[in-house]
Amino acid sequence: PLNSLERVFNFCCLVLGILVFGSLVSSLSSKLMQYRAWQQEQNTNMIALCDFLRENAIQPQVAVAVQKQAEVRMSKERLPVVVKDVAALKWLTGSMRRRLQLELCK
């Protein structure tokens, strides 16, 4: 930079670069955490299924078939989020819940 204008432009470019890069890293980190939480939920569900099958003395051939099908279907299907699954909705006022319900029914 040879003069003040070039220095200011250089500074602005650096700050913009830091903000864009920080936003990118934050976004990638968030997606990775969501994926890990989803994967942990699937692992928890599979462990519960294995426990259920073992506790009920299900034949090994049937148990393996059940586990495989559950695994395949869990990886392909993502169930839609329903109102009862969203804990934060319980803090809404009655009028806001009614507005939300009206929007959901459209």
Task: Give a structural overview.
With 106 residues, the protein is mainly α. The protein contains 3 helices and no strands. The protein has helices at 4-55, 60-76, 94-105. The longest helix has 52 residues, at 4-55. It is elongated and about 80 Å long. The N and C termini lie far apart (59 Å). The model has no long low-confidence stretch (mean pLDDT 90).
SSE inventory with pairings:
Blueprint: H1 4-55, H2 60-76, H3 94-105
Instruction: Give the C-alpha Rg.
Output: 25 Å
Q: What order do the helices and strands follow?
A: HHH
Kindly state the percentage of residues in helix.
over 70%
The helix-and-strand class reads mainly alpha
Low-confidence stretches: none
In total, the number of strands is 0
Amino- and carboxy-terminal Cα gap: 59 Å
Q: Profile the largest sheet.
A: none
- Share of β-strand residues: under 5%
Overall pLDDT metric: 90
* General form: elongated
Please tally the helical runs, counting DSSP H or I stretches of 4 or more residues. Answer: 3
